[in-house]
Amino acid sequence: MSGPPPRVLYLTGWMRSGSTLLGNVLGELPGVRHIGELHFLWRNGVLGVGTNSSCGCGQRVTECPLWAKTLAALPAGLDESTARRMLALQHALLRTRHTRNRIAEARGTRPAAPGLTELLDRSVAVYRTLTELGGERLVVDGSKCPAEAAALLGRDDLDVRVLHIVRDPRATALSYRGAKEYIDPMSPARSSGYWTAFNLASELVGTTAADRYLRIRHEDLCADPRRVVTEVMRFAGLSGPPPVDTDGRVELGVNHTVTGNPDRMRRGTTRIATDHRWRTALSGRDVAAATAPALPLLGRYGYPFLPGRAAAAVPPPNPPASRAGAPAAGAPLTDGPVQAGDTR
């Protein structure tokens, strides 16, 4: 391969934490391509068997000019049988429970599992093509699969940075409480169970990534969007001013995201603002159910144990593998579909 390896910012953490909006904000920068959740390209984009199979531009993924070029450029081409094999390999190798094994492989203390190299080669080929189609400075992948983030860190043909986004688990529980066209409802306790598992796995990835890992909080981004977006840009190796003004407004254009919150289709002026609806919209029973499974991490991330208290004024400490400072993540627009069977 000639030239530097593709630079990828891989977003991880639990769903509904604002990764779609953050990715779209970064995608407004020159030379940055936000691609949504590449992990779901094969299922939703190629096979079209998911409920969220449109590109962010509004066309079906396979009919989008950008993705049509990208898929056609894959070394071995692409057909349904190949896409189904990719799905099978993802299920066998990239669920959250596989994170420790993928970390060991990235560190070189364990040989790569059968099929892993084949699976990752496809992702690397997609990243490489996208760097030639508008992502020469950075490709932003919001897939949020900790095991995949770990596996990609082991590649020497990629420059991967891992951005771990956390949000108060009561807020994500509220988002999952009702059915939406692209996700099934989930109880507060179950949502927070996944929240804890995904965030613990993401922190494990941080122990492997060293200075290639940063954790931010959704609430901090909402409170000071310009500062946090700037922090993320610098972490990802991007110079220049952020595309957010001092009032938290950003002008969003057309994007080419695979899967994600339907708000990824939003165009025009968008204001990033704080959202504390969970404090009044959740019943006391639901708050308790969402809080209990998350107790091991609430204090670590600076979230109150009791809903009546204000959010922590001082950012929580990062784990040893994190960069100094814990700015934050997300925005009132949160992210997309999750197949519950693939998350454990």
TrEMBL record:
| SUPFAM superfamilies, sorted | P-loop containing nucleoside triphosphate hydrolases (SSF52540)
Q: Would the keyword Transferase be found if you checked this record's keyword annotation?
A: yes
Q: Which Pfam families match?
A: Sulfotransfer_3
- Keywords for the protein's UniProt record, in alphabetical order: Transferase
Q: Where is this region: Disordered?
A: 309-344
Give any single GO term for biological process: sulfur compound metabolic process
Q: What is this protein called?
A: Sulfotransferase
The record lists the organism as Streptomyces calidiresistens
